[in-house]
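RESIDUES AND SHAPES:
===
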Amino acid sequence: MIIITRVHILRNGVVTTSSIEIYSTFISLHPRARIHSLTVESHTAQPASTLNLDVLIATANGLRRLLQDGKLSSAQLVDLYLSQIERHSHRGLKLNAMISTAPKKILLDIARSLDDGRAAEYIRGPLHSIPVTVKDSICTDVSLETDTTCDQVIGPVDGRMPTIAAAAGYPVGTVPLGYSQTNGRPFELAVVALANEEHKMMQFMTAWDKITPSRLPPPQLVD
């Protein structure tokens, strides 16, 4: 017995539940059936603007189920949330809840790559391809196109920050501040820059050295 069946898939490679059920029904009714040919049809997923999804009350678990069932793609979800932000953050209700968002093209490219990963059954975790917002993050990529981004982090040299940054491979520099008059122990300022941004770190260190008063070396070094 020869059966010619058809399996429908979305553009992001997610097989629809109905097609799986039809395919399984054929196999269960005809266990000796032989598949002669398999036709794959590509269907465009439902436009984000027509999805019946209320982003104000949607939960992470609910979104995860929609993504797993192939009823929603990460690219659609990102587009929905960006549209909501654009509609009401600085316009509409003027909530002013978001300082800045990354460029839409970058976000959609990331979302599509996550959709491809889901189609290949490469799931990074329960929040795979679910958008999140980060509050009060200052160490961010320059692609955010806002003056609130940060390309250098400054802290005490004897803290954990420069040690972790150096272990991760980020450039770290130090600026002498002075020494303790009680035990003569010197203390310094650590400057951590982004990868391949050593020139900015050197610019900061040079500017700091110029505007701060002369610093006496520890007595041990003088002698």
User: Anything to note?
Assistant: Residues 152-211 form one domain. The two ends are 98 Å apart (CA to CA). The beta strands are 2-10, 34-43, 152-156, 172-179, 186-193.
